[in-house]
């Protein structure tokens, strides 16, 4: 039954969720989420802008000039735990019994080749010296044990709370890189990046979204690195943290779309995915916002190209924003002449806004209303890399009312049973590495309410379980998917070298995460 009790209402008040919001969520479960209607894949010169080195340099120079006098901020989703990074090692820890089988036999039985790669590259991980020190302390007889037992001890020490505890640590606080003898977390690497492209050379603003339970750990790391980095770079770091808000949680329902209740009869709410972070982003007051995931960092020697293309993307944002603001101010001042209308409508098409043919026939007054409505929106410029098999949302032209719009679409949003839709999805040549530059203020310098530009039909309904009971969960439209569906959107091709996520621990063995300096052997 979907009737609310007084206890339910008190829970809603505590979370900041209205009954209307709750009812809308239940209605969405009942209605379902319609699949996205793809029109075609966005490709080079048809939705994706290619930059030559010269063009990229031009836009980087534009940004260098514009960033003086503007507030720049780096927004980093950093709430992810490292658990999934160590999936293969957890399987090894729980399944391998060194007193009953050899490591070679385990690999043959399970096919878990990732754990073999881990041990083959063990001394190259930045955390190796810390791991060795922990094992030396806890297992003074380690060197006398056979190799199979040693391997089990290594993984247990790495993952378990009585060792290094990396299995439950936030990904942002893991030792990722080694620079000479200095070990750096991705959290620290984002500070170094911010100095290079997201600062005014006097101050750098960073905002990290984290889980509340990890607050103390992040502040501990911040207090260690901030004074050192400020002295090294002669810059001040302004750092904020925020949590996913309880008001963005979504209710769970049964398979029959009735409110799901736990064993004590309470409504069950769940975090609503990264789309919930739109509320955090909406609270940010900055002129230019860089969005980049916590794990997409590189060692120093690969930083230059990443910085260059971040500045190029920001320069493109500045150029387009300047033109939009000029047009909007001229509309306000009644300065647009009739003969200019066609040129402005053509500009809208250049920045991927659909313009129906009949708009060209409108009287000037009505054309101006259309233009202002279309241009007075948040803007995002998104880096796109060539698809080399990595998972991630792709760039597509999507049917949108009377026209089409550029969107970042996940495979789960597409009806793959429709042969035509599946074919279009498979024609995608690029994917989104979560590399966005955003302008969230209007031409008057006032912040947009980002909640007004969400497409609620890009939510996700998924099947989950709770205590063995099946349920349906609702994820809000993804932060860079449906949450930005009605933004002005430009996609720009950037080199694959700018995309270096760490999805599994062995990704840290790739060249962009290797800073040199091998550890001491066990």
Features:
522 residues, 19 strands, disordered C terminus, 10-stranded mixed beta sheet, alpha/beta, 18% strand, 3-stranded antiparallel beta sheet, 15 helices
Q: Can you walk me through this structure?
A:
This protein is α/β, with parallel strands linked by helices and 522 residues long. Helix content is 35%, strand content 18%. It has helices at 6-15, 19-31, 53-66, 87-95, 103-110, 113-120, 128-138, 147-159, 186-197, 215-233, 278-282, 303-332, 341-350, 364-375, 419-426; strands at residues 38-41, 43-44, 47-49, 72-77, 177-179, 182-184, 203-209, 236-242, 250-251, 269-270, 288-292, 379-386, 394-400, 403-409, 430-431, 435-439, 460-466, 469-475, 488-493. Strands 2, 3, 4, 7, 8, 11, 12, 15, 16 and 19 form a ten-stranded mixed β-sheet that branches. The protein has a three-stranded antiparallel β-sheet with strand order 1-13-14, covered by helices on one side. The chain is globular, with a radius of gyration of 25 Å. Mean pLDDT is 93; it is low at 516-522.
Topology:
Layout: H1 6-15, H2 19-31, E1 38-41, E2 43-44, E3 47-49, H3 53-66, E4 72-77, H4 87-95, H5 103-110, H6 113-120, H7 128-138, H8 147-159, E5 177-179, E6 182-184, H9 186-197, E7 203-209, H10 215-233, E8 236-242, E9 250-251, E10 269-270, H11 278-282, E11 288-292, H12 303-332, H13 341-350, H14 364-375, E12 379-386, E13 394-400, E14 403-409, H15 419-426, E15 430-431, E16 435-439, E17 460-466, E18 469-475, E19 488-493
Parallel strand pairs: 2-3, 3-19, 4-7, 4-11, 7-8, 12-19
Antiparallel strand pairs: 1-13, 5-6, 9-10, 11-16, 12-15, 12-16, 13-14, 17-18
Helix pairs in contact: 3-12, 4-8, 9-10, 12-14, 13-14
């Amino acid at each position: 039954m979907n009737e609310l009790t007084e206890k339910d209402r008190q829970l809603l008040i505590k979370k900041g969720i209205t009954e209307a919001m709750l009812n809308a969520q239940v209605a969405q479960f009942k209605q379902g989420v319609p699949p996205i209607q793809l029109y075609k894949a966005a490709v080079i010169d048809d939705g994706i802008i290619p930059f030559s080195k010269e063009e990229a340099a031009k836009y980087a120079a534009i940004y260098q000039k514009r960033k003086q006098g503007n507030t720049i901020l780096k927004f980093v989703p950093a709430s992810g735990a490292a658990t999934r990074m160590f999936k293969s090692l957890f399987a090894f820890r729980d399944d391998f019994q060194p007193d009953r089988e050899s490591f070679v036999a385990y690999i043959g039985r399970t096919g878990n080749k990732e754990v073999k790669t881990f041990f083959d590259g063990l001394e190259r991980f930045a955390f190796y010296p810390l791991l060795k020190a922990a094992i030396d302390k806890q297992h003074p007889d380690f060197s006398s044990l056979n190799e199979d037992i040693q391997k089990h001890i290594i993984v247990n020490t790495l993952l378990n709370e009585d060792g290094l505890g990396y299995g439950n640590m936030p990904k942002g606080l893991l030792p990722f890189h080694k620079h000479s003898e200095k070990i750096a977390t991705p959290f620290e690497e984002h500070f170094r990046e911010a100095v290079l492209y997201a600062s005014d050379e006097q101050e750098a603003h960073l905002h990290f979204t984290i889980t509340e339970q990890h607050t103390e750990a992040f502040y501990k790391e911040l207090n260690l690195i901030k004074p050192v980095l400020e002295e090294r770079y002669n810059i001040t770091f302004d750092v904020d943290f925020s949590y996913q808000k309880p008001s963005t949680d979504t209710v769970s329902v049964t398979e029959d779309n009735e409110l799901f209740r736990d064993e004590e009869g309470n409504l069950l709410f769940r975090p609503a995915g990264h789309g919930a972070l739109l509320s955090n982003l909406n609270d940010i007051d900055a002129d230019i916002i860089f969005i980049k995931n916590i794990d997409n960092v590189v060692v120093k020697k690969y930083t230059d190209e990443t910085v260059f293309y971040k500045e190029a993307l920001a320069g493109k944002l500045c150029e387009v924003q300047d033109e939009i603001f000029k047009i909007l101010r001229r509309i306000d001042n009644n300065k647009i002449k009739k003969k200019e209308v066609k040129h402005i409508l053509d500009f809208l098409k250049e920045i991927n806004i659909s313009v129906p043919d009949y708009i060209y026939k409108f009287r000037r007054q009505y054309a101006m209303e259309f233009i202002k409505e279309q241009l007075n929106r948040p803007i995002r410029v998104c880096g796109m890399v060539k698809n080399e098999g990595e998972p991630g949302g792709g760039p597509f032209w999507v049917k949108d009312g009377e026209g089409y719009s550029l969107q970042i679409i996940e495979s789960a949003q597409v009806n793959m049973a429709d042969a035509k839709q599946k074919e279009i999805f498979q024609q995608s040549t690029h994917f989104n590495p979560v590399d966005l530059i955003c302008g969230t203020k209007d031409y008057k310098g006032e912040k947009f309410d980002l909640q007004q530009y969400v497409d609620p039909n890009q939510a996700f309904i998924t099947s989950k379980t709770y205590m063995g009971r099946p349920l349906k969960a609702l994820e809000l439209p993804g932060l860079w998917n449906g949450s930005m569906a009605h933004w002005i959107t430009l996609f720009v091709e950037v080199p694959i070298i700018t995309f270096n996520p760490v999805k599994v621990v062995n990704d840290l063995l790739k060249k962009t995460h290797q800073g040199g300096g091998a550890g001491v052997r066990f």
